[in-house]
């Protein structure tokens, strides 16, 4: 059994859901199980129903079916949470962590990134680079980097994606054409930091605690270098850390250390744009797959459909509310709520997430809806 990363304290978060399509009767056509990795032997839960409960009757004498299924529902939420934040990286025993990290890095790059990248001017000062991305080769969540022109004409890139010829040309045409800040917005969105750092060696590299150490351990992936970080956010310094005068004049920022991925969220004040990575998804990833040939677009698996439903902001957004409350903020809800409230205090109108659709104009309204329980409380 492979060892678990130290940052994940609950081994039940490490799971892999094997799902198959349903037959005409509504029953699984093959065995469908949720494997829970522990420090001992993986155990099996009963088959999972598409309705969100396990097909096992409650214990004798217990007629409260809703109450009896809550622990199982929570486990599913935590399992999907692990998948969303990149925790599930061990698919079979005997594979070392570094080897998988290298393979995952290769899979993050489309075979033809320049052909499928969508470059969009969200505002005259904010440009996005959207690309297709399948989480674990199954769930289409897309990826997005964001380039911002500061008031002093310098440039900052957030969650950088591949620096393709088209992306490089767009950088050259905006502001000074020189990137002064390269921001890894959490401990997962850093694969292309080195590529941008080589192109712009004078840029400051910014990221959350744990990321420099994580990158330093990778020795077999050419994409991940060991460049020094100029600014590292920690739980202890987050309230008094400053980047520099030019950057701070245009941005507010919050380090959400309570999030499993150690999220950095930025508010670009001149254009009222919120830039974030995994704090909030907005699936489906339509723009990010818009240039992919129809025949090559992924067809939704059961797990993909469930995950998309849990990360959609449409309607009442109950799925994503539950996902954030019961899974993503579970470890430190008080700290998570504090960060959400600080972000809610900013006057943004547009949200640029890494995964899913950009929300233009009504970003604050959507944010308040999605994080309602964190802002107003929930029983």
Mind explaining what this structure looks like?
- With 379 residues, the protein is an alpha/beta fold.
- It has twelve helices and 16 strands.
- The strands form four sheets. A seven-stranded mixed beta sheet has the order 4-5-8-9-10-11-12, with helices on one face. Strands 13-14-15-16 form a four-stranded mixed beta sheet. A three-stranded antiparallel beta sheet has the order 1-2-3, covered by helices on one side.
- Helix 1 packs across helix 9.
- The longest helix is centred in the first third of the chain and has 20 residues.
- The protein is globular, with a radius of gyration of 21 Å.
- This is Beta-lactamase-like protein.
- Keywords: Membrane, Transmembrane, Transmembrane helix.
- It comes from Neurospora intermedia.
- InterPro entries: DUF4336 (IPR025638), RibonucZ/Hydroxyglut_hydro (IPR036866).
Indicate the topology:
Elements: E1 15-18, E2 33-36, E3 43-44, H1 65-84, H2 97-107, H3 113-116, E4 118-123, E5 126-131, E6 134-135, E7 139-140, E8 143-149, E9 155-158, H4 165-172, E10 179-183, H5 193-199, E11 204-208, H6 211-216, E12 231-233, H7 245-250, E13 251-256, E14 263-268, E15 273-275, H8 302-309, H9 318-328, H10 333-344, E16 350-352, H11 363-370, H12 372-376
Parallel strand pairs: 9-10, 10-11, 11-12, 15-16
Antiparallel strand pairs: 1-2, 2-3, 4-5, 5-8, 6-7, 8-9, 13-14, 14-15
InterPro entries: DUF4336 (IPR025638), RibonucZ/Hydroxyglut_hydro (IPR036866)
Protein name: Beta-lactamase-like protein
Region (Disordered): 40-66
């Amino acid at each position: 059994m492979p060892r678990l990363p130290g940052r994940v304290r609950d081994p039940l978060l490490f799971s892999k859901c094997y799902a198959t399509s349903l037959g005409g009767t509504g029953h699984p056509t093959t065995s469908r199980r949720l494997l829970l990795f522990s420090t001992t032997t993986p155990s099996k839960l009963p088959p999972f129903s598409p309705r969100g409960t396990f097909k096992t009757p409650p214990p004798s004498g217990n007629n409260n079916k809703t109450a009896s299924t809550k622990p199982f529902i929570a486990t599913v939420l935590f399992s999907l949470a692990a998948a969303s934040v990149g925790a599930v990286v061990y698919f079979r025993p005997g594979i070392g962590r570094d080897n998988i990290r290298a393979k995952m890095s290769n899979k993050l790059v489309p075979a033809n990134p320049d052909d499928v990248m969508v470059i969009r001017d969200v505002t005259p000062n904010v440009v996005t680079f959207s690309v297709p991305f399948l989480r674990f080769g199954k769930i289409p969540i897309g990826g997005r980097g964001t380039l911002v022109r500061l008031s002093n004409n310098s440039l900052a890139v957030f969650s950088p994606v591949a620096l393709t010829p088209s992306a490089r040309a767009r950088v050259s045409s905006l502001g000074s054409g020189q990137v002064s800040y390269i921001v890894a917005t959490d401990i997962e969105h850093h694969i292309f930091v080195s590529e941008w750092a080589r192109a712009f060696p004078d840029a400051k590299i910014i990221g959350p605690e744990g990321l420099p150490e994580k990158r330093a351990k990778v020795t077999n992936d050419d994409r991940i270098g060991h460049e020094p970080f100029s600014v590292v956010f920690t739980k202890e310094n987050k309230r008094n850390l400053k980047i520099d005068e030019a950057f701070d004049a245009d941005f507010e920022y919050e380090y959400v250390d309570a999030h499993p991925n150690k999220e950095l969220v930025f508010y670009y004040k001149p254009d009222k744009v919120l830039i974030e990575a995994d704090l909030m998804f907005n699936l489906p990833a339509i723009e990010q797959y818009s240039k992919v040939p129809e025949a090559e677009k992924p067809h939704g698996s059961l797990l993909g459909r469930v995950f998309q439903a849990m990360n959609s902001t449409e309607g009442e957004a109950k799925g994503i509310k539950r996902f954030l409350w019961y899974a993503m903020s579970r470890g430190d809800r008080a700290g998570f709520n504090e960060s959400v409230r600080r972000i809610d205090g900013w006057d943004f109108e547009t949200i640029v997430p890494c995964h899913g659709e950009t929300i233009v104009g009504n970003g604050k309204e959507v944010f308040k809806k999605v994080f309602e329980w964190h802002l107003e409380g929930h029983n």
